[in-house]
């Protein structure tokens, strides 16, 4: 859920449409046909059922995704990307202590639940609509990177993060959260963010880009990459140092 350029020009037109008037003597604003269509589509998406049949397991709404909210910089992964990431995470989960933390990546959480309902997961998310996930959900604001329940500290063997913004400050604070969550000793970190964060990811967390290129269900304007702190070998297209 990164701060990436989305094809939302038609929606953004809504904010500027008030400069047009019905006539010179009447200040009643109106929308162009393109902006009106975009508005109708946006409202329809916001009002649709929270259950995504492609994600939910057996109609179980506990793993359903809500609709994207671009105002929160939310862009869900494509099915192929979500399945690939879920398979990789599960391949890293070995032993009773294999707990997984998903920071701002609810698509991955949903697909992990779909693939293995017994996996121990925690979703850290700002959007409180995900409270529907019950005890698997923890409210998370990256501006307070360590204001989290004490039982989460150093509790996760696998930490996957998708920072909501591409700023240096955001990645630095999310890196603090990752350090708070990851187990001492062997742990695995996967970071999904823009190509522009390559050097910062290496400096802050010792991460390298993989050959696999994540995709989203919405068209994004920035190059997106997956970074890891471990060499995936033949998986994920390998490390691309």
Structural class: alpha/beta
Question: What is the number of beta strands?
Answer: 9
The averaged pLDDT comes out at 79
Task: Spell out the CATH superfamily of the largest domain.
Answer: Vaccinia Virus protein VP39
CATH architecture of the largest domain: 3-Layer(aba) Sandwich
**Element-by-element helix/strand order:** HEEHHEHEEEHEHEE
Radius of gyration: 20 Å
What is the top-level CATH class of the largest domain? Alpha Beta
Helix content: 25-40%
Strand order of the largest sheet: 5-4-3-6-7-9-8
Residue share in β-strands: 15-25%
Shape: globular
Looking at the structure, the CATH topology of the largest domain is Rossmann fold
Q: Biggest sheet, in brief?
A: 7 strands, mixed
Give the tally of structural domains. Answer: 2
Number of helices, where a helix is a run of at least 4 consecutive DSSP H or I residues: 6
């Amino acid at each position: 859920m990164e701060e990436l350029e989305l094809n939302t020009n038609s929606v953004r037109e809504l904010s500027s449409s008030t400069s047009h008037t019905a006539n010179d003597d009447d200040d009643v604003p109106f929308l162009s046909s393109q902006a009106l269509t975009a508005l109708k589509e946006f409202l329809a998406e916001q009002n649709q059922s929270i259950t995504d049949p492609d994600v939910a397991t057996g109609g179980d709404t506990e793993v359903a995704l809500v609709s994207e909210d671009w105002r929160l910089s939310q862009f869900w992964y494509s099915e192929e990307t979500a399945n690939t990431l879920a398979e990789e995470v599960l391949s890293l989960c070995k032993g009773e202590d294999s707990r997984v933390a998903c920071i701002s990546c609810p698509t991955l959480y949903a697909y992990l639940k779909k693939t293995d309902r017994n996996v121990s997961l925690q979703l850290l998310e700002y959007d409180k609509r995900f409270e529907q996930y019950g005890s698997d959900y923890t409210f998370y604001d990256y501006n307070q990177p360590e204001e989290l329940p004490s039982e989460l500290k150093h509790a996760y063997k696998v930490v996957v993060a998708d920072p909501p913004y591409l700023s240096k400050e955001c990645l630095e604070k999310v890196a603090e959260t990752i350090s708070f969550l990851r187990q001492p000793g062997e742990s695995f970190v996967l970071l999904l963010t823009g190509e522009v964060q390559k050097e910062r990811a290496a400096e802050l967390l010792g991460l390298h880009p993989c050959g696999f290129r994540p995709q989203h269900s919405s068209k994004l304007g920035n190059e997106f990459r997956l970074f890891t702190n471990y060499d995936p070998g033949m998986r994920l297209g390998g490390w691309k140092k």
